[in-house]
Amino acid sequence: MGEQSLDKTFELIEKSEVALVRLCQDLIRFPTVNPPGNDYQACVEYIGNRLKNRGFTVEYIRAYGAPGDCADYPRYNVVARYETGRQGPCVHFNSHIDVVETGDGWTKDPFAAELIDGKIYGRGACDMKGGLAASIIAVEALIESGIELKGAIEISGTADEESGGLGGVAYLAEKGYFSKDRVDHVIIPEPLNVDRVCLGHRGVWWAEIETHGRIAHGSMPFLGDCAVRHMGAVMTEFEDKLYPAMAARYTSMPVVPEGAKQSTLNINSIHGGQEEGNEGLPAPCVPDSCRMIIDRRFLVEEQLDDVKGEVREILATLAKTRDGFKYEIRDMLEVIPSMTDENAPVVRATAKAIEEILGKKPDLICSPGTYDQKHIDRIGNLQDCIAYGPGILELAHQPDEYVVVEDMINSAKVMASAAYKLLMGEVD
After folding, report:
1. Using an 8 Å Cβ cutoff, are 126 and 185 in contact?
2. 1: pLDDT confidence band, cut at 50, 70 and 90?
3. Which of 32, 234, 237, 392 is the most buried (most CB within 10 A)?
């Protein structure tokens, strides 16, 4: 069999444009905002019911005991598997179903999924329900085309990627769903642009720093010790020492955009003092606690112990040199950088499909932020994994997020072609 056998598949994808739009809209209309984790069960059951009707065996897996899992917000995942009945590898398409909060600045209803000028708007349209919809249409068309495929195809919809993936892919990987005896190749339709193949991502360390002080009356701050001022000293040290040091470090990883080739640190949040009372009036107290969440993204050339060490050294030095400085630091999440070899089968198959369908040689890139490849790699020990999807990277988490319908169609063709090459052993 050659590429000519995919003509029917591509024709079916093109004819499925209305169905693809409707599927994407339906997925967006589940407001699966995380936190807290709304509507996970309803969303995965929608996916599962659709695939069950197309011959897939469907499992719903709740991540009992995962962070955030509770009666009100159960962490549900769906894994659907199609067996061809012929011996061969398994290609798995994994998409997360959770989306971030909407935030301000929208001019469209974030969950109406309006189709306007060839774009579907909504929270999660780009990241990554457009990719999920495209992968489903791709696989359905590949099966319906009548090609005698080998092996198996899996599609999963998973929880909590936006908060680290512990209730989603990490949980499934621990249960063996991404083990080498079950899955050979993984494509994650994250929004990294329709003409690029993403090999992996930088590392991340999330931590909480808390400075301590002593409460006193706000009119007599000299009788207390302001924890917020102590945190200000931490931020000054970051500005004077840490940020310049990070700005001097560059990676050989093909990370996009350009600014992400450096080490970075984001201060996610700061909370100090007592909460405001009636009508927002402040408590007349010296704050005895201040907490800061840091988001440190690091490069494959850096060691996690060194990344942590330079922050801990700043805090330890302040404890020695600043009167009354007391602190605690707590690890929240750590992820080692991950990068698939550019000669891996899934990379070659997807890159070849992009070249054939879009008429251009794709860029091989790495993501500035982490995604669920980290768990497939580190827990599942499965390295043949990439991210490829229709969304535009810069639109992720933005107001008026959208996905372009034409990009979904093209990416569906690419995913169908890549899956075909991998299943049939036709990887150059």
Report:
1. no
2. very low
3. 32
pLDDT tens per residue, range 333-356:
899 999 999 999 999 999 999 999
CATH, range 207-335: 3.30.70.360
In angstroms, rounded to a whole number, what is the distance separating the alpha carbons of residues 156 and 139? 12
Q: pLDDT tens for residues 182-239?
A: 999 999 999 999 999 999 999 999 999 999 999 999 999 999 999 999 999 999 999 9
Task: Find the farthest-apart pair of alpha carbons in the chain and give their distance in angstroms, rounded.
Answer: 83
Q: Is 381 within 8 Å of 110 (Cβ atoms)?
A: no
CATH class of 3-201+337-424: alpha beta
- pTM metric for this prediction: 0.89
CB 27 within 8 Å of CB 133: yes
Helix (H, G, I), strand (E, B) or coil at 148: coil
Q: In terms of DSSP bridges, do strands 338-339 and 196-201 run parallel, antiparallel, or are they unpaired? A: antiparallel
Rounded to the nearest 10 degrees, what angle do helices 40-52 and 130-144 cross at? 10
Identity of residue 315 = L
Question: What ranges do the domains of the chain cover?
Answer: 3-201+337-424, 207-335
